[in-house]
Amino acid sequence: MKYFIIISLFVSTFICAQDMDNMREYYFVELLRIPNRAVLDSTTIANIQTAHLNNIDSLYKAGKLVLAGPWR
Fold first, then answer.
1. Which residues contact 48 (CB under 8 A, 6 or more apart)?
2. Residue 63, by phi and psi: left (phi above 0), alpha (psi -120 to 50) or beta?
3. What residues contact 19, with CB distance under 8 A and at least 6 apart?
4. Is there a contact between 12 and 52 (Cβ–Cβ < 8 Å)?
5. For the range 51-57, what are the long-range contacts, defined as Cβ-Cβ under 8 Å and sequence gap of 24 or more?
6. pLDDT digits over 7-22, tens only?
7. Cβ neighbours for 13, distance < 8 A, ≥ 6 positions apart
């Protein structure tokens, strides 16, 4: 389902684009979970998550982020 949505977004972008000179450039990033990642304690995980959410918030406020997941 996730890949259907991604493909639909790309296809609709090209179908709906009537003036290629005025198109905006977007990036899609998918983060993958590493199977043998390091085991972290709950304090470190909470600090990483807080920093991650603060970064998402700053990117949004700067106008560099339109949409953020997760999608399952």
1. 40
2. left
3. none
4. no
5. none
6. 666 666 655 555 666 6
7. 23, 26
* 4 CA to centre of own chain: 16
Backbone angles phi, psi at 10, to 5 degrees: -65, -45
Give rounded-to-5 percent helix, strand, coil for the chain.
55, 0, 45
Report the alpha-carbon distance of residue 15 to residue 18 in Å, rounded: 8
Q: How far apart are CA 25 and CA 34, in angstroms?
A: 29
**What is the pTM (predicted TM-score) of this model?**
0.53
User: What are the extents of the domains in the chain?
Assistant: 2-31+38-61
**pLDDT tens for residues 23-58?**
677 777 777 888 898 899 999 999 999 999 999 999
User: Token digits for 11?
Assistant: 């296809």
